[in-house]
Design a protein that fits this description.
Distance between the termini: 24 Å
Number of helices: 15
CATH architecture of the largest domain: 3-Layer(aba) Sandwich
CATH superfamily of the largest domain: Type I PLP-dependent aspartate aminotransferase-like (Major domain)
Radius of gyration: 21 Å
Number of strands: 15
Order of helices and strands: HEEEHHHEHEHEHEHEHEEHHHHEEHEEEH
CATH class of the largest domain: Alpha Beta
Shape: globular
Number of domains: 2
Oligomer: single chain
């Protein structure tokens, strides 16, 4: 017990201690956290759909007709008609021939990656991939080769010198940096070296690409070029659950092999119905995406004028680089004193020396909300370092 307590004390001393806030009420920009009303810029509800009346009504209808619990795994008696219809809708929305619905994004990444590679195989993983990808790679027991973030030259050399079954896995939009992977070049390299490409586009779906169909669709990449694309409903779609889309034979293979799909209770059918409704909303919400893009451009311009250091992100994820973990906590606390909730992100979530405030903008933020955020940053002395760059070591 003493060793665990000592480690907690060390985290506190280094500014790495994590706490939970108690939030009440719906997810929206103005929320109650720890009993205080705040204007939040840290949610992944990028399109502001988490509290949309159409999704609430779909969930209510699902509860009335299908009850609450999923009650069983998909392979026993838990695969409800609502799940099946959602998968068909997902395949059509993403331009793929098949889809599989998972309970969470973490489970989707772990299940897909560990099913598609195993002992004797090699997985190539971007250094800044999400923790769920990293854990999926470890669970597979394959050889893992990490390439520097976005460095396709290094990846090309790694692929050329490696034989056997090869899997390349990357985020589409990186969750802490907000940049987009070089997907077209990755697809080209995978075709050249006979590797299977898997893209986790959790932060791209809804916001990126025509009708919010994601970063892979935005690049015009086909199912042959990017066989497997993973997404989540818990972010821009505003609901819950996750999915993988791709060729129907691979979906069937995952039903046989993905342990996080096989050995878990199915999500409640009512949530699947709400997610189905959310696809319809996302598909027709160009005005929300346009408003979000205007907020992003205004924020970046203003913050540069104020002397803050930003990463080259065109997405709703806008990291304000600080460097030191304690300094990031101080800046976050200064903003909170002004009624703004902006989370400080520190190691091990990001590499040491790259602590930041992760500002996430939403289509539900108003121009006045953004004005208030910019004014608050202006009132705080810039504590960022212009030399802080995205690290090339593996986080988490």
């Amino acid at each position: 017990m003493r060793d665990f307590i000592r480690e907690i004390d060390e985290r506190k001393a280094l500014g790495l201690y994590r706490t939970r806030r108690v939030v009440s009420g719906p997810q929206q920009p103005r929320m109650t956290a720890d009993g205080e009303t705040v204007l939040a810029f840290c949610s992944n509800d990028y399109l502001g759909l988490a509290n949309h009346p159409a999704l609430i009504e779909a969930a209510k209808s699902g509860l009335e007709t299908n009850g609450l619990g999923g009650a069983s795994s998909h392979l026993i008696c838990g695969h409800h008609q609502a799940h099946h219809q959602l998968e068909e809708r997902l395949a059509a929305f993403t331009g793929r021939t098949g889809a599989l619905f998972f309970s969470t994004g973490y489970m989707a990444n772990m299940g897909v990656i560990s099913a598609m590679a195993g002992r004797g195989d090699t997985i190539f993983s971007d250094a800044l991939n999400h923790a769920s990808i990293i854990d999926g790679c470890k669970l597979s027991r394959a050889t893992i080769r990490t390439y520097p973030h976005g460095d396709t030259d290094t990846l090309a050399n790694q692929l050329a010198e490696t034989g056997g079954h090869k899997l390349v896995v990357t985020d589409g939009v990186f969750s802490m940096d907000g940049d987009i992977a070089p997907l077209r070049e990755l697809a080209r390299l995978c075709k050249q070296h006979d590797a299977l490409l898997v893209v986790d586009d959790a932060h791209g779906f809804g916001c990126v690409g025509p009708q919010g169909r994601g970063s892979v669709f935005a690049e015009g990449l086909t199912e042959d070029e990017v066989p497997l694309v993973i997404g989540t409903f818990g972010k821009a779609f505003g609901s819950s659950g996750a999915f993988v889309v791709g060729p129907a034979p691979l979906m069937d293979y995952l039903v046989q092999k993905a342990r996080t799909y096989i050995y878990t209770t199915a999500m409640p059918p009512a949530l699947a119905m709400a997610s189905h409704a959310s696809i319809d909303l996302v598909e027709h919400e160009d005005p929300r995406r346009q408003h979000l893009q205007r907020l992003i451009e205004r924020f970046r311009s203003a913050m540069k004028d104020l002397g803050y250091s930003l990463l080259p992100s065109s997405t709703a994820i806008q990291p304000v680089m600080v460097g030191d973990a304690k300094a990031a906590l101080r800046l976050s606390a200064d903003l909170e004193k002004r009624g703004l909730l902006v989370t400080a992100i520190r190691p091990p979530t990001v590499p040491r020396g790259t602590s930041r405030l992760r500002v996430t903008l939403s289509a539900s933020h108003t121009e006045a909300d953004l004005d208030r955020l910019i004014e608050a940053f202006a009132a705080c002395a810039p504590v960022t370092r212009s030399d802080v760059q995205p690290a090339i070591v593996t986080p988490h």
